[in-house]
Specification:
- The chain is 39% helix and 14% strand.
- β2, α2 and β3 (55-56) form a beta-alpha-beta unit.
- The termini are close together.
- The protein has one domain (3-255): Alpha-Beta Barrel (TIM Barrel).
- α1 (17-26) runs parallel beside α2 (42-52), α2 packs parallel to α3 and α3 (79-96) runs parallel beside α4.
- It has nine helices and nine strands.
- A nine-stranded parallel sheet has the order 3-2-1-9-8-7-6-5-4.
- The protein has 256 residues and is of the alpha/beta class.
- It is globular, with a radius of gyration of 17 Å.
């Protein structure tokens, strides 16, 4: 049976972070994942998770200071800025008790793609050597929500992972983003499976609860179950109304 984590970048987003952790525990989640928690002291996040017996999965690297950046790992000429932010993410993740960091590649003009690829590879190799105790996640982000993001298809991120060649760089397979880019999401999942470090779900195309929309992700979760997938499945969506009112999909899976 899948193990679901609450993505607190989206769920209960109107509340302070520590209150979001409380709500996630009250709703039966056993893990949480964050976006950019840096304004809340890491020791307070760690204590809140420990109080509820929650696993803290991961956080994101900073997006960058310029409008439209959405990450720096693949930005040529900004290596020092990227590494400073990435080191901050590693330090925070460790102090908070997390296990992974989503390394955000950023929006890159098409004419810089070759140079950006080399920049990303160098940055990831350097960061991977500093993060042997953590997992670095690469997430393809669709070009409808974020035009020009460095990769939008899982296979593109998998190629980068293979070229980096370290065991601690893995794929974050997000069903919502994959549905924008792939005709057959299950086939893409199967093709990418050996690279996967984390999975996320949301309804497509609304990015609301995963029980709505045209993407039937439940066969994919059954497929993961059949392969004894040991990772978590992150609930990364924007709730239609109160989060608590929309959790029937989770309860259905957990009660069989």
């Amino acid at each position: 049976m899948p193990r679901f984590s609450a993505n607190l970048g989206f769920l209960w987003a109107e509340l302070p972070l520590l209150e979001r952790i409380d709500r996630a525990a009250a709703m039966g989640f056993r893990a949480v994942e964050l976006h950019w928690p840096y304004e809340t002291p890491a020791k307070e996040v760690r204590a809140a998770c420990a109080r509820h017996g929650l696993a803290l999965l991961g956080i994101n690297t900073p997006v960058g200071e310029r409008a439209g950046d959405f990450g720096l790992a693949a930005q040529p000429g900004r290596e020092d800025e990227f590494m400073a932010g990435a080191q901050r993410a590693l330090d925070y993740c460790r102090a908070a008790g997390g296990t992974s960091v989503h390394v955000m590649a950023g929006v890159v003009p098409g004419e810089l793609r070759e140079q950006a690829t080399e920049t990303l590879l160098r940055n990831l190799r350097t960061l991977a050597a500093r993060a042997e105790d953590l997992t670095l996640l690469l997430e393809p982000i669709n070009h409808v929500d974020k035009p020009g993001y460095f990769y939008s298809r899982p296979v593109e991120a998998c190629r980068i992972i293979d070229e980096v060649g370290t065991g601690n760089v893995r794929l974050m397979f997000d069903f919502y983003h994959a549905a924008h880019a792939e005709d057959d999401v299950l086939a893409s999942l199967a093709e990418s499976y050996d690279h996967i470090g984390h999975v996320q779900v949301a309804g497509y195309p609304s990015r609301q609860e995963p029980d709505e929309g045209v993407l039937d992700w439940e066969p994919a979760l059954r497929w993961l179950d059949e392969r004894a997938y040991e990772g978590w499945v992150g609930a990364e969506y924007r709730a239609r109304a109160a989060v608590e009112e929309g959790l029937a999909w989770k309860n259905r899976w957990e009660t069989g």
